[in-house]
Design goal:
Blueprint lengths: L1 H17 L22 H30 L7 H35 L2 H21 L13 H20 L2
Helix pairs in contact: 1-2, 1-4, 3-4
Length: 170
């Protein structure tokens, strides 16, 4: 669902970049008397909806993937504990490498080939990631949470308030 939101967000942005009628009015920012106008109506609604959907999907993915990866390892088994450490190293490398590729290749693609191509490729790559994720679903360990989530939230709050009291005495 969350990756689906990312595909939708980037897909809508690519669509808006591709279809000329969805572009904002053209303007020349170098002219002394600039004739630039804000985008209104459907164009602005589509643009902001796509941005919010992309931001929502990206924020949820960044928050959920590390914990999903950590759940795939048994903390009691020393070999799996080592594999978990290796997973987080590769996860961090993958996130950093993806950012590097995005800053170099996708930005180059958007500047020289068009925003529609860059955003469309981003949507396709996210869709490919979604398909790989879905193909692995039967192999994932699904650890069912025990107890009430409210109890766990209150335990974390209690621990943090105790740490604040200890630190205030330092």
């Amino acid at each position: 669902m969350i990756k689906h939101a990312l595909v939708q967000g980037y897909g809508l942005l690519a669509l808006q970049a591709y279809v000329p009628s969805l572009h904002p009015p053209t303007c020349n920012i170098e002219a002394e008397s600039s004739n630039c106008k804000e985008a209104h109506g459907w164009n602005a609604t589509l643009f902001y909806t796509a941005l919010y959907i992309s931001a929502f999907g990206e924020g949820c993915i960044r928050a959920c993937l590390p914990s999903l990866g950590a759940d795939q390892f048994d903390h009691e088994d020393p070999s799996e504990s080592h594999q978990q450490s290796s997973f987080f190293n590769w996860f961090t490398f993958g996130i950093s490498f993806g950012g590097f590729v995005g800053l170099i290749f996708i930005v180059w693609l958007e500047n020289y080939k068009g925003w529609d191509i860059g955003l469309g490729l981003s949507a396709i790559l996210i869709l490919l990631g979604l398909l790989v994720f879905a193909a692995g679903l039967p192999f994932y360990r699904n650890q069912v949470p025990e107890g009430s989530p409210l109890t766990r939230i209150l335990q974390v709050e209690n621990l943090t308030s105790n740490n604040r009291q200890v630190c205030s005495k330092c």
